[in-house]
TrEMBL record:
This is Cell wall-associated NlpC family hydrolase. InterPro entries: NLP_P60_dom (IPR000064), Papain-like_cys_pep_sf (IPR038765), Peptidase_C40 (IPR051202). It holds the Pfam family NLPC_P60. Residues 1-118 form the NlpC/P60 domain.
Length: 131
């Protein structure tokens, strides 16, 4: 998912879905997966959390989705795992697309789970709901 790095520095915009006007977290994730794999993901982080296979944090691989509870409900924020505890995301109002460390206390205490949308061997997309 290194293709997502092209969006570093793009400003956050609530409901944003493109680089010209800005991205919210799920808008960024949708764009990266569409660009890289042609995969059309649901619009919200909550809806994305119902896709793919649940992944234990110890099993994270680049391209997995990582979810956080940043508001008053679970799965309110999503990013793309990059490896080495780093994830790409569009943070919040006033912020810009960036890579952050999941072990920082803010993210560590809000981590909500992870999902794998792409099968390892075939690279085929996984579209069934979480089990």
């Amino acid at each position: 998912m290194n293709s997502g790095l092209q969006y570093l520095g793009i400003r956050y915009r609530f409901g944003g879905t493109n680089a010209d006007t800005g991205f919210d977290c799920s808008g960024l994730v949708r764009r990266v997966f569409m660009d890289a794999l042609g995969l059309n993901l649901p619009r919200t982080a909550r809806e994305m959390s119902n896709m793919g296979e649940r992944i234990d944090p110890a099993e994270l691989k680049p391209g997995d989705l990582v979810f956080f509870k940043t508001m008053r409900h679970t799965f309110s924020h999503v990013g793309i795992y990059m490896g080495d505890n780093q994830f790409l995301h569009s943070p919040s109002a006033g912020g810009k697309v960036r890579v952050e460390d999941m072990t920082d206390s803010y993210w560590r205490t809000r981590f909500n789970g992870a999902r794998r949308l792409v099968g390892e061997e075939s690279g085929a997309q996984v579209t069934q709901p979480v089990r």
